[in-house]
Design goal:
184 residues; alpha/beta; Leucine Aminopeptidase, subunit E, domain 1
């Protein structure tokens, strides 16, 4: 499985089969990545997602991609506002945790595998409104992808692209990826 780290807009990846939404458990498209998906992809993604929600923290659900150039949107629930979401342990000062982000990443790859997709683009999960630290997110997500690849050598997913909107987030993910390549 090839892993790429790029700076850009996850909604502008026409060569990717599915993009991942940094979702809440109710699958309501709000701000950040979800807002960009709603704006560019259309309200049908929001309607379809809400019809499939709510889902548990760490789970992932799939919708069509509306007007986006991709086949699907995979909604990875890395945060939530429901009473049951509040019962799940979180990192202090955050609405998420490494465990939740790890599961959301893994379950997104599972949904892609179920659809026999070859490529998936992820944003940083839970680093916006959920306030999870970007470098820890990068470590968690890259580690989860590498573990998934190791555990699923016959996976249809051959490309995972992390698309980071800001320069500092891109640098954090690239730094973590470089450490992984060196085996540190």
């Amino acid at each position: 499985m090839k892993i790429e780290i790029v700076q850009g807009d996850v909604t502008q990846q026409p060569d990717i089969d599915a993009i991942v939404n940094a979702a809440n458990t109710e699958l309501i498209l709000g701000s950040g990545v979800a807002g960009a998906i709603l704006s560019r992809g259309g309200a049908e993604i929001d309607r379809e997602g809400q019809a499939k929600g709510p889902i548990k923290l760490g789970e992932a659900a799939v919708t069509g991609a509306g007007r986006l150039p991709n086949k699907y949107v995979i909604h990875a629930a890395a945060m939530g506002y429901r009473p049951e979401d509040a019962l799940v342990p979180k990192r202090k000062g955050s609405l998420s945790s490494a465990a939740i982000i790890r599961e959301a990443t893994k379950n997104s790859l599972r949904r892609a595998e179920e659809l026999k997709l070859q490529s998936v683009a992820f944003p940083a999960l839970a680093t916006g409104v959920a306030a999870f630290p970007v470098e820890q997110c990068a470590e968690t997500m890259i580690g989860a992808v590498r573990k998934y690849d190791w555990e699923n050598p016959q996976s249809s997913v051959t490309l995972v692209r992390f698309v980071l909107f800001g320069e500092s987030d891109h640098k954090a993910f690239a730094s973590v990826m470089n450490r992984h390549k060196k085996g540190l």
